[in-house]
Design a protein that fits this description.
By secondary structure, this protein is of the alpha/beta class. Helix content is 28%, strand content 22%. It contains 12 helices and 17 strands. It has a 6-stranded parallel sheet with strand order 9-10-11-12-13-14. Strands 3-2-1-4 form a 4-stranded mixed sheet. Helix 3 runs parallel beside helix 4.
Length: 436
């Protein structure tokens, strides 16, 4: 089947331009002039974008907590992937913790794949986990197709996934087959007890210094082992000079941040509103501005959601000590980031590069996250100037700090391998490194 998408505005090669994107058998066969009538377009079905719409590659979100099996009341593959598709995300990679069992060996990976099979509206891949004592499982997980393994340098919040404060053994093992370690980088020795309704007390309990110290240690270990490391959900801009210096020295370290660190500020968080709680925390406005600069400078590589939902009972306690720490934003990550980016003079192509192309490259999916011949025809149509107020979402639970917020950027359609996503007929595939 052939389809041609005709757009006056399409994000191609890092810029917006008119284009006709010819799709054949789920792949992009050619990128042509918008009004081209050759090279197979004459007998193709047509999708013609409106004047206010932009054709973009489907986003790739490499940091999603789906929580199934075991904690499906928090989220699940059906609800998470419906939300992803509604937000223009065509590929996500699921984190290893919060599910029961956690994905720390191949049998657990197979349990998770069985839970996901046939229920996904978009493509789904998996991270493995690195915990104390499972170094011997890491190669097998790698060979079974996980894109890398995740560890926590301090308490993860769930007992089934204990902290790995010294990941050198895992790093040495991963270096032997060029695997990737993702790290939640906070130094537990510098993290205090949090309790009560005052946000400033919670913020003080998880200072920037805790992130900075953990990242410095991680960089030293990466330098010593030669392993690849990835810092997840960076919130402390104070770590940016250290990361830039490490990169200049050849340390193989990549960095992500998240929509909430780029859009929210500590100053706006009301006391008792635990919808804003995440770890590490949302920090001050000046820190947010510095993160945007780090993103512009290329020290921060990408923006992914860290979608980490929980039941309303766990999330909405009003106590920043006891409430679950996670932000639900999978469906609205693009408009959250775009709303702030456009205010700062960024282009939509700039955002797409960091929310589609860079995450795809992190996990080696070079055929995703871009509009180019040979790439998967994973596409989204967005109206970047249209606004909407955040209301009902496809997540299992609607609890989000963005509720009621007016955002720019309405996703009007999502296509997976050239077929429009129908949440009632899930066509997502389970993918792994072998699909890269």
């Amino acid at each position: 089947m052939r389809t041609v998408f005709r757009a006056s505005r399409a994000v191609v090669d890092g810029a917006e331009r008119p284009a006709a994107v010819l799709v054949e058998d789920g792949q992009i066969a050619a990128v042509l002039d918008r009004d081209a009538a050759a090279d197979g377009t004459l007998d193709a079905a047509e999708v013609v974008l409106a004047a206010d719409e932009v054709l973009i590659p489907g986003l790739v979100d490499t940091h999603v907590h789906v929580n199934e099996p075991g904690r499906t009341e928090w989220e699940g593959f059906a609800s998470a992937t419906r939300a992803a598709a509604a937000g223009g995300v065509t590929t996500l990679v699921d984190m290893p913790l919060n599910a029961l069992p956690p994905t720390v060996d191949v049998p657990a990976l197979e349990v998770k794949r069985k839970a996901a099979d046939g229920r996904c509206a978009v493509d789904v891949g998996f991270w493995g986990g690195a915990i104390p004592g499972n170094e011997q499982e890491l190669r097998a997980l790698h060979e079974a197709g996980v894109f890398g393994v995740k560890c926590f340098l301090l308490d993860s919040g769930v007992p089934e996934f204990p902290a790995l404060p010294d990941p050198r053994g895992a790093l040495r093992e991963l270096a032997s087959f060029d695997g990737l370690l993702l790290a939640h980088a906070e130094d537990g020795a510098l993290v205090g007890e949090a309790h009560g309704r005052r946000y400033r007390d919670f913020l003080a309990s998880r200072p920037r210094a805790a992130e900075d110290s953990a990242i410095a240690g991680l960089v030293r270990m990466a330098r010593g082992t030669g392993a690849r490391v990835h810092v997840v959900h960076l919130s402390s801009a104070d770590a940016l000079p250290l990361l830039a210096e490490a990169r200049s020295e050849g340390v193989r370290v990549t960095v992500e941040t998240c929509p909430h660190y780029l859009a929210l500020t500590a100053e706006e968080v009301p006391d008792g509103d635990t919808r804003f709680k995440c770890c590490p925390p949302v920090r001050e406005e000046a820190n947010r501005d510095a993160l945007w600069q780090g993103l512009a400078d290329g020290v921060i590589d990408m923006v992914v959601s860290d979608h980490s939902p929980a039941t309303p009972e766990l999330k909405g306690t009003g106590d920043f000590g006891s409430a679950w720490g996670g932000i639900a934003s999978l469906q609205i990550g693009l408009p959250v980031v775009w709303t702030e980016a456009r205010r700062r003079g960024w282009s939509l192509a700039d955002v797409v590069a960091r929310m589609a192309t860079a995450p795809a490259d992190l996990v080696g999916l070079r055929h995703k996250g871009r509009i180019a011949p040979g790439a998967a025809a994973d596409l989204a149509v967005v109206a970047p100037d249209e606004t909407f107020a955040v209301g009902t979402l496809a997540h299992r639970h609607p609890t989000t700090p963005y509720a009621g917020r007016t955002l720019h950027g309405v996703v009007r359609g999502t296509w997976l391998r050239g077929e429009r996503v129908d949440p009632d007929r899930p066509a997502g595939r389970l993918i792994g490194r072998g699909d890269a």
